[in-house]
Amino acid sequence: METGQHDNPTVPAHGRQVIYLDNAATSFPKPAQVAEAVSENIATVAGSAGRGTHTFAVAASQLLYEVRRAMSDLLGTREPTRWAITFNATDAINMALKGFIKPGDHVLTTSIEHNAVARTLRYLEKNRGATLTKLPHVPGIGASPADLPRFLTPKTRLLVMVHASNVTGEIVPVREMAAAAHAHGLPVLVDASQSAGALPLEIDEWGLDMVAVTGHKGLLGPQGTGALYVRPGLEIEPLRHGGTGSFSESDTHPDGWPETMESGTMNGPGCAGLLAALRWISARTVAAIRSHEVQMMQYLLDAFAEIPGVEIYGTRRADMRAGLVCINVADLDPAHVAHELEQHLILTRAGLHCAAWAHQAQHTINRGAVRFSVGPFTSLDDVEAAARRVAEIARSAATFGA
Amino acid sequence: MRSSQTYDPMPYLLLTYDRTTEAIEAAMLLEEAGLTEAVLVPRPRSLVAGCGVALRVPRQDAVRAAEILLRGGRLGNPYLGDPRKGWDPVSPSELIAATDT
Asked: Å from A238 to nearest chain B CA?
C-alpha cells in the first residue's frame, strides 16, 4: 500500500491549516493551557475525588472544588457547592428535568429548544405523565415574557428555556423570563450550552434557579465536562445513585450537595482542563470575548448579505445574536455547500444541528442549513476566507444552476 | 499561661465533615488565610462522619482557624486531642475558652 493512498482531501490532514467555523458544536482551538492541564493531570494525579485520603485523592477533590469555585465566580453565583459537575449539558439537563418534574406536572418551554431539552421533555410526557407547552416563537428573541401568563395552568411547575439557540442564534431574554415566571411562583431552568463563556450570564443577579452548561463550547474546556447549578433551597432528586465517597458504611444514597449528584468517578483530567479554560476566560473576560465574536460575526453577516442567492436566517445584527448564523445558498443542498467549503478546509456544520424545534421555528426543518459559528480564536482572515468561498459557491450555482 | 515546655495533652484541633467538598472548602479557607500548618488527614475510625478526610490544625492556630471556619460556615464537627490518644468533642465556645488560656 502506497503512502497517502487513503488520504482523503476532504478530511484535513494533520498539520494543515484549517479554518474552523463550527465552534457551536465544540470550540476549537482551545487555549494551550487546557491540553497542558489535561496532560499534567493524567501524568501526575492518580487520585479519585473523595475516594481515600492520600495526597492524590485530596488533590483530585481540591480540583473539583476549584472547578466549582471558578464556575461560580465566572457565572455569578454565591455558592460553589451548588454546582454539580456533569459530563456535558445534556447530562445536566437530564439531571435537572428528571430530578424535578413529577407525574402530572406541566412544563412551559420555548419553541427553539435543543433536543437535549425537547427529547427529555417528550420522554417525561410519555413516561411520567408530564404535560408540556411550547411558548410561541417570537422572532429575534425566541420567546417573550409577555406570553407566559396565558399558558400557565395550576399544574405548571417549571419554565425551561435555552439562553441562546444553537440554530437561530436568538438570545432569549432569560432574566425577564425568569422575573415573569417568578411572579407566578415558577422556577426556571436555563440551558446555557451555547452562551456560557461567550455571552454575559449572571445567574444569581438574574434570578436563575437552575442552569445547565457544557464545558466544551464557550467555556473552552475538554469534551466530557459540564455542570448543573441548582440554587440553594431548591431540591432535586439525583439522576444516578452509587458511590459518592461519603457515608460509605451505608447502602442508602446520601443527601447533600454536590456529592449527592455526582455518583461514580468524575472526569478528573477533563476537570483539570476545564479549570484551566475557566481561568483563561476569567483573565480574558467574557466581555472581551463577546466583543471579538461580535466583530467576527458582523463581518460574516455583512459579507453574506452582499452575496446574491444567500439567505441569512435571523437578524443581521451580530450584537443581537449568539456567535453563529445559519444560511442557505441558492437552492443548493446545505450538505453540498458544507462539503464545498471543506474542500478549502473551511469547517462548518450542515444539517439540523440536533434541534428540530428550532429548525421548525426557522422554517428550515425540511432542508436544514449551513451553520457558521465563531470562537475567541476566529480571525478576520478566517471569516474573510469563508465569505469569499461562499460567494464563489453562490456564483457557481447561479452560473451552472443548482 | 501555658509554657512552651508544658506537655499539651490535646495538641490538635480536628474537624470532621459529612462531605468531602466541605473538608476541601475548609482546608482552602485556612490555606488562603495563611494557616499553612493545617492539613487534611484520614478521619479516625472512632469518629463518625460521612467524609473520610478530616482537617487537623495545630493547637496554636486553633482559635484563629475556628473563627475563620465559623465565619465561612465550615467548622464541621470539632474535636481536641491527639492522634495516638484520642479525641474529645468540643463546642466552638469551649474551644475558644480552652485554647485561650
From this structure: 16
